[in-house]
Amino acid sequence: MLYCKNHAITMYSIITAFYIYIVYLIMSNPSLVNYLFLLLGIMICFFYQDGKLIVLSSIVSILLLGYFYTTQFSLIVESMTKFDVIYFILFIIFSAILYGYYARFTNRLWLKVFSEVKEKEEALHSAQEHFQAFFMYNNDAMVVVDLLGNVINVNPAYERIYGWKKEEILGEFLPSIPRTHIKEARQRFCRVENGERIIGFETVDMCKDGTLIHVEITISPIYDQFGKVIALSEICRDITERKATEELLRQRDKLVLAGEMAAGVAHEVRNPLTSLNGFIQLIHETDSKHRTYTTIMLSELKRINDIVGEFLLLAKPQSLHMEIGLLEKVLSDVTLLFKTEGALNNISISLEPFQEPAYIQGDTNQLKQVFINLLKNSLEAMPNGGKIVITPKTTEDGFVDIFIKDNGVGISKALLSKIQEPFFTTKEKGTGLGLVIIQNILHQHQGSFVIYDSKINEGTTVRVRLPVVNISQ
User: Fold this and answer.
1) In a 3-state reduction of DSSP, which class is residue 381?
2) From CA 438, how far away is CA 373, in angstroms rounded?
3) Where are the transmembrane segments (predicted)?
């Protein structure tokens, strides 16, 4: 800024000094040749490339030329000689050289400008291509919204993850934000509009089919050439699988803890429990007077013994007899086992056919225990009767999913997060270890278990996933 100001002062000072000298020269020697130097001032101004200076110089030259022409015309005519033509020729040659140099300088300047513009255009085109490739082929969902949250553009990954096509949501408020999160989302947009950048914020988004997914979002402002925020870009990374893995690791840690606790408790309790059971059994047989009390005591001791048995099952590593077999056979045996009990309680149990044979490697008895526990839970959830449907489904990544769906009482959202914790139970005579044992067995078989869906008074669906063995190899 200071340089530009000093340059302008220098420029105007030089031109002013030049005209002062020309005026002095004409007044001291009013010859026609000296008048030609008034045009030289305009030529000099062309080198400065300053429009205001050129106009000002032209006006000054015209005024001075007019003034001296009217006041000193006779002196000019009297001083003219034949030799003056040489000065005119020299002035023309000088002007030609000057304009030639100026034209060359201007051409070089234009070539330089053109080259720089071309380089910048190529750099801009390259940057646009890089951005377009990043936007179009990124595996993370990307969306550009205006300051009100209305969609301007989305990439193919957004369409794939969330299910909406670009044409469906252009100009609409970002539909992947659940209604319960809109206020919070607007607050984030306001923060970014003020120049802040939000990185790695974890939240929940909604897909077109209503499914909620865990996402990690990064929101950045988009500026115009004046540095004003005109839009927002949001990158959404689906971390649902990561969350599920973290939850699985937490559950496995709880399994280890539960196993350690079970080992200690079971060994400490079982020996005195056996003694108590023996003495009470003796009293029960010899003292009919207190048989009512001893019956209750024996019943409660049996319950304690069952709990200790589950502790030992959880704590003691089972020697697995691994063999390859059809999962359909395991499910058929378990279904048949519960058919009679289901019929007595007005509950139908159906096993849908497999689309293709699913061979698994595992301990048949242990896997039966998994499905026995799950069917038992479903039966207990339907005191007024109902229906249990077992649906197998083979996945593309080498697993088989077994969905067990009932239309029982369901599980509330508040209990869903606790239901798989060791020792947590809602049953009057439950131990809170049934699902823990299921998780433990499936972990030994490289499988998994999740409560897939549950709604109060509508029922529950659980999913067991096991790896499939390719027997053709």
Assistant:
1) coil
2) 8
3) 7-26, 32-48, 53-70, 85-102
